């Protein structure tokens, strides 16, 4: 069991984590016709907007209540009300997700109470669903904001179970923030192959997958519909991915009575087998031949790839559930995780990471640990590129943000097919760093060949001729 060490620094020189409000905004973008709204200063929104646009290479409809000095002193309720009314009148959203920032949280405002009063005295907001999540910048990171926003959506929009609700062939899915749009699309295909109808919350597989809409849309381009959210009590089971999604899953179970299973990861052969076994048991159907073939392809990829993983030293820095998933993947393929840096603590999966110590720190801790252990590969987001350059070690980009590569929304890592793709991606990374050895690579370790001629004389390094 790993020991979790919380570093106490006066300043973080190269931060690892992204803020909780940004995680909430990404979750809100997974709701159909949704708009995320930061309740705070313009600077908080601008920073999150830049990171999101650079990562997804898409237009992000992130808005702000734009609190100034006066609002900071007197209170931001009027700013929140004005922002909601402006958005409702001009953009006609079906959903607005409010995420509080450190500014209003530090001031101690009752944002929930303010929102209730605003909704009561403004009938024109009745057609818009408004959800507020408490996400101060100084507490938690991307995973925490995503989970808080999902929990708030469930509390506000899901209709409780009643005897009139019949059970349909529906499966609820609560993906983690580390799932890419194509990961969610792959999960949908797996679930549908057993005859189920998946309701995914939040669903960024269409809103952030990178496509050109037929016409300009001021809100999110797609996502979970409000009617699907309201009817989540109709499901036969809920699947949550990542420990940070346990609270939303428990909240949904308490409201609807739908049992839930929390998967720590869906990357790897064993986790994929567990998912498929659960779906087969719930559906009372055999595993489709397509999935059996994908499993066979994964096993073959593991056989082909393990030669390139064995003996490699890997240093990883990521949000806790992504860190756990990648650590289990590398260890299962024969590599050694020599350094593990988490953005935040408190996640129970951190203790299960196959390393002696897990440090809650920043990218400087990653660089120091990788240098000390002689790591062969750094695994983190794009802000780790400077550390990789200084160490002369290749960087594999994962998580958020990745702004110096294209196609990050289409990198699949879940299920048999996604794990197979990840194996090839990492193995090819190792192969690209290898090269053909030449005699000069070994210096003086190998002496020059000595050839004896017919006259008994010796020629060093060349052939003697008559």
Automatic annotation (TrEMBL):
UniProt entry tagged with the keyword tRNA-binding: no
Protein family membership: Belongs to the NifD/NifK/NifE/NifN family.
One Pfam family named in its UniProt record: Oxidored_nitro
Domain named Nitrogenase/oxidoreductase component: residues: 19-430
Protein name listed in UniProt: Nitrogenase iron-molybdenum cofactor biosynthesis protein NifN
Keywords assigned: Nitrogen fixation
Xref: NCBIfam families: nifN
Claim: Membrane is one of the keywords in the record: no
Its biological purpose: This protein may play a role in the biosynthesis of the prosthetic group of nitrogenase (FeMo cofactor).
Domain of life where this protein originates: Bacteria
Cross-referenced Gene3D superfamilies: 6.10.250.1090, Nitrogenase molybdenum iron protein domain
Pathway(s) annotated for this protein in UniProt: Cofactor biosynthesis; Fe-Mo cofactor biosynthesis
CDD domains per the UniProt record, alphabetical: Nitrogenase_NifN_1
Encoding gene per record: nifN
């Amino acid at each position: 069991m790993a020991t979790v060490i919380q570093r106490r620094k006066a300043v973080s020189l190269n931060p690892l984590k992204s803020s909780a409000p940004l995680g909430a905004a990404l979750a809100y973008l997974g709701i159909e016709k949704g708009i995320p709204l930061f309740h705070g200063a313009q600077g908080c929104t601008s920073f999150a907007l830049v990171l999101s646009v650079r990562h997804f290479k898409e237009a992000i409809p992130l808005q702000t209540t734009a609190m100034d000095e006066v609002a900071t002193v007197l209170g931001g309720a009027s700013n929140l009300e004005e922002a909601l009314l402006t958005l409702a009148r001009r953009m006609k959203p079906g959903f607005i997700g409010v995420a509080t920032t450190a500014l209003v949280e530090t001031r101690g405002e009752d944002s929930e109470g303010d929102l209730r009063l605003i909704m009561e005295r403004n009938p024109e907001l009745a057609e818009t669903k408004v959800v507020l999540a408490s996400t101060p910048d100084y507490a938690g990171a991307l995973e925490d904001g995503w989970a808080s926003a999902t929990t708030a959506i469930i509390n506000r929009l899901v209709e409780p179970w009643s005897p009139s609700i019949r059970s349909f062939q529906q499966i609820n899915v609560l993906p983690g923030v580390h799932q890419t749009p194509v990961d969610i699309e792959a999960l949908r295909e797996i679930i549908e192959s057993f005859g189920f109808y998946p309701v995914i919350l939040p669903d960024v597989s269409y809103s952030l997958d990178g496509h050109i809409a037929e016409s300009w849309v001021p809100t999110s381009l797609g996502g979970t519909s409000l009617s699907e959210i309201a009817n989540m009590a109709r499901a036969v089971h809920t699947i949550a991915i990542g420990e940070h999604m346990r609270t939303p899953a428990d909240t949904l179970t308490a409201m609807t009575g739908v049992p839930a299973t929390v998967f720590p990861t869906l990357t790897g052969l064993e986790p994929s087998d567990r998912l498929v076994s659960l779906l087969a048991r719930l559906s009372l159907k055999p595993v489709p031949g397509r999935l059996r073939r994908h499993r066979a392809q994964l096993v073959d990829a593991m056989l082909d790839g393990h030669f390139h993983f064995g003996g490699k030293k890997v240093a990883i820095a990521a949000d806790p559930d992504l860190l756990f998933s990648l650590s289990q993947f590398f260890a299962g393929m024969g590599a050694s995780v020599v350094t593990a840096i988490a953005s935040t603590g408190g996640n129970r999966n951190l203790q299960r990471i196959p390393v002696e110590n897990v440090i809650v720190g920043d990218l400087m801790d990653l660089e120091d640990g990788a240098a000390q252990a002689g790591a062969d590969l750094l695994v983190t987001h794009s802000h780790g590129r400077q550390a990789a350059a200084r160490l002369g070690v290749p960087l594999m980009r994962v998580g958020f943000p990745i702004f110096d590569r294209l196609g990050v929304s289409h990198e699949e890592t879940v299920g048999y097919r996604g794990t197979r793709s990840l194996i090839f991606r990492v193995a090819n990374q190792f192969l690209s760093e290898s090269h053909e050895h030449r005699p000069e690579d070994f210096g003086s370790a190998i002496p020059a060949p000595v050839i004896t001629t017919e006259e008994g004389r010796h020629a060093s390094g060349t052939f003697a001729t008559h």
